[in-house]
Amino acid sequence: MDNTLGDADNTWDNTARRRSVRRFCRSEPSKIDRTRTSDLLRTLIHLQRKRRRTVTVTFQILGTSEKISLDNFHGLVAGYTGRDAAAVQAHIDELAAIGVAPPPEVPMFYSVDAATMNSDAEYVDSSMSLTSGEVEPVYIRHAGVYYIGIGSDHTDRDLERTDIADSKRACPKPVSHEVIRVGSLADLEAFSLDDATARSTVDGKLYQEGRLSGLRTPYEISTRLIDRLGLVDADNFVCLGGTVPLLDGAFTAGERWHIEIELADGTRLAHEYRMK
């Protein structure tokens, strides 16, 4: 499944659909009806299920020889995932001041092409824009079981100033090959990343480092995603769950990216990739 907001059905072509979503999401915030927003997202997910194309991603469960393969999964990036509502609103206001439309709902889920979510070691950056990554926990559901991984929300930072959704779809979303098995939804509710530390480096320089306690929990992001998009039990997903601040506050382009999350018990997920 190609998880852009598109569909192979001739009744509504990809371009028209994306333009419709953009027009809707750029409406005046005071006029946005949350129910209509959720209904629109559910309609788009329903249309996505008709796609003919199949995308498969395989993960290895950390500490075992077991692997899981996801077919026809929903690829998503969660935005505005901070736990401090006042701080999130302040960030939204800052973006609005430079012309970026506020999200219709918080947290916001951006659909991306599932084919861009993989563990490749190298990508070709053909963009003339500034692009950069960010370390993020990854929340995965496969056959009703939940897993935690790590990924990078590599983004076109120039495009981000005018269209956040398109800026995320413009770049790959590297994810780790290894994941941690959490279990059922009840197990996910009990699972905490609050004491985990996320780090990223670019070309050997420390770029991000911080605790994940400032983010909404894996359970909250996953359950909101399921409800917002109207997913059924059979729907698998891979969702990036938010990041920590940049150490120097400035986006940096680079070739060699290293991302990692270290849990309180010393368990570590890591991934490296290159942008050429």
Q: Could you name the key traits of this structure?
A:
276 residues, alpha+beta, Fumarylacetoacetate hydrolase, domain 2, eight-stranded mixed beta sheet, five-stranded mixed beta sheet, 7 helices, globular, disordered N terminus
What is the end-to-end distance? 27 Å
Measured on Cα atoms, how large is the radius of gyration? 18 Å
Instruction: Summarize the helix and strand pattern as letters.
Output: HHEEEHEEEEEEHHEHEEHEEE
Structural class: alpha+beta
Overall geometry comes to globular
Query: What about the largest sheet?
Result: 8 strands, mixed
Description:
With 276 residues, the chain is α+β, with helices and mostly antiparallel strands. The protein has one domain: Fumarylacetoacetase-like, C-terminal domain (Fumarylacetoacetate hydrolase, domain 2), CATH 3.90.850. Helices cover 25% and strands 30% of the residues. It contains seven helices and 15 strands. The strands form three sheets. An eight-stranded mixed β-sheet has the order 2-1-10-8-7-13-3-4. Strands 5-15-14-11-12 form a five-stranded mixed β-sheet, with no helix packed on it. A hairpin with a 5-residue loop joins strand 1 and strand 2. The radius of gyration is 18 Å and the shape is globular. The two termini are 27 Å apart. The N terminus is likely disordered.
